[in-house]
Structure formats: structure tokens, C-alpha cells
Specification:
By secondary structure, this protein is mainly alpha-helical. A 3-stranded antiparallel β-sheet has the order 1-3-2. Strand 2 and strand 3 form a beta hairpin. The chain is globular, with a radius of gyration of 17 Å.
């Protein structure tokens, strides 16, 4: 997924905004190296096919490294690269904002509104 846009912000946003992409990066950032099956179970609702596609794209972009060990059965794990680790501030910021807006950090009145049926 090599974008030739002259705007660096647009290029990085195209990478990050793909379905599940930011969530995959966040799980790897938070939990460290993950085997494929563990990563798949950590992301409810994602199919193995989509996870494979996203991981390949992230590997191509230099954000994720695929480690293969030829054991029986083969062991494949995924780790953030140095470039992927540079997203730490962005991922932490998104997590903090998500918790503020939608998570446990909401004021009690906002939490009640969020849980009331429409």
C-alpha cells in the first residue's frame, strides 16, 4: 500500500485508517509480540483472512515484523518494528481520548446517558 501523496499526514492516515489496523497496532503495542492465534482471539469480530491482510499491509509499511519459526506446527508471531513503536504516543493518545469520551473516565452523568436506551 504505497501511497504517492505529497502530504505526509494523508499518507500515514491512509495506513492507520484501514479497518482494524489501529486496533491491531494497539494490541501489539500494549501486549508486545503476539502469535497469530492469540492476536486473532484478542480482536473479537475480525476474521483470520482480514487479520492476515492487515498484518501483511503493516509488514509492507514497515510497522510490523513477522517472525517465523519452522517448528511443527510452524510458529508465527508479530512484533512492532522501531517504526511501529514510533506510534506509541499516537496510540496512547487515542486510548486516553477514547477512555475520556467513552470509557471509565466519563463523568457519572455522561455514563448514565451512554447506557440509557434511546
Amino acid at each position: 500500500m504505497h501511497d504517492e501523496s505529497p502530504c505526509p499526514v494523508q499518507r500515514i492516515m491512509r495506513v492507520l485508517m484501514g479497518n482494524w489496523t489501529t486496533y491491531i497496532l494497539y494490541i501489539l503495542h500494549r501486549n508486545g509480540s503476539q502469535r497469530f492465534g492469540v492476536l486473532n482471539r484478542a480482536i473479537p469480530g475480525i476474521s483470520a483472512k482480514v487479520l492476515t491482510e492487515r498484518l501483511r499491509m503493516l509488514e509492507e509499511e514497515g510497522l510490523v515484523r513477522r517472525d517465523y519459526k519452522p517448528t511443527i506446527p510452524p510458529e508465527v508471531s508479530y512484533t512492532l518494528t522501531e517504526r511501529g513503536l514510533e506510534l506509541q504516543g499516537v496510540l496512547n493518545g487515542l486510548n486516553d481520548l477514547g477512555m475520556k469520551w467513552y470509557g471509565q473516565d466519563q463523568p457519572e452523568q455522561e455514563q448514565t446517558k451512554a447506557t440509557e436506551p434511546a
